[in-house]
Specification:
44% of the residues lie in helices and 22% in strands. The protein contains 12 helices and 11 strands. The strands form 2 sheets. Strands 3, 4, 5, 6, 7, 8, 9, 10 and 11 form a 9-stranded mixed sheet that branches. GO terms for molecular function: DNA binding; DNA-binding transcription factor activity.
Length: 318
Amino acid sequence: MNIVKLERMIAVYEAGSFRKAARGFGMSQPALTWSIRQLEESLGLSLFERGPSGIRPTEVCETLIVRARLIVNEHNRLLAEVERTNRSQVIVVGVHPVLLNSQFAHTVATFRAQEPTVTLRVVEAYSADLIALLRRGELDLAFSAAPEGEEEEVAFEPLLRQYYSVFGRADHKIFGEIAGGGEITQHAWAQADAPNVAAGRAAGAMQHDNANLVLELLARFGMTESTVAVRSASMHLIRRMVLDGGLLGMIPESQFATELHDGTVRQVPGSNIEGPPLGLLWIDGGYETVARRRLKSALRIMQAPERLEIIPVPDIAA
C-alpha cells in the first residue's frame, strides 16, 4: 500500500466511477481498476462492490476513506513544508478579507523589521476556503474565523470579534426614509460573496443559521436578490461601491472609522450585528519555525477595533 494507491481509492470513491476517476488521473480505466485490485489484495478485503448499475463503496471502505484522506493530506502538507524550507524563507498566511486593514499592514511592517529575510505571501479568502487550504498544506497559518464544527487537526486561538453594520453615503435616500418613518423603497446593494452567505441563501432556516440571520436583517432594510447590484468576495470593492458607487453594504465597522468621523458615510440605524470570533488557525502538532512563531505573536497583539455607538432600531414601515 502506498500514497498513490490511496489517492486513487479516494478518487474512485469521490467520483463514484472508475471511468471518471481514470480521466482525472489521465490513465486508462483498466489500469486504474488493476491498481485498486492490487490495493484490495494487499488489504485482504473488498473496497467497492461492482454491479450492473455501477460501483458502491463497501462498509469497510467508508471507514478507511476517512483515514486515507488524513494520510494523503498529511503527506501533501509534508511535501509542501519541505519545499518551502528548501526555498528562501517564505511564510504563506491566509487572511480573511475583513482583517486586511491598516492594523494588519502595520503588523506586517513590524514583523518585517524583526525578520528582514522572511517574505510573507498573503492569500485573501473567506474562512471555509482558508481552512481547506490549511488542511492541504498550502498555508502555514490562517487569520480568520473559527471552523464550523470540530476540526481535530486544526487549532484555533480566538483573538478578537468583528462588528458589522449597514453603511451608506451620508446623502443616501434610505436615511430620509427611516427618519420619516415611511416604507423603505428598493435601493441597490453591494453584498459580500462569502461561502456561508451563499449557502444560507440556498439552504433552509435549519442550516447556516448565522448566515440566515444576516440575510433576514438585511431584508428588513430592503435588500433582496433583485436589489443586489454587486456581489463580490472583495471587502475592499464593497467598501468602494458604498463610497463611490452610492450603494448600500454591510461592512465591518472598523473599515469606515475615518469616513464616519468626517461625515462622508452614515451607519444605518439598527443594523449592528456581531460577527463570529476571529483568530489564528494552524495545523495542530505541525513544525513551526522561529519566524512563524514571531508572526503569530505579532498578530496576537493586533488591537480589537473600538465599537461604534449602537444606534437604536428604528420603526420601519412594513
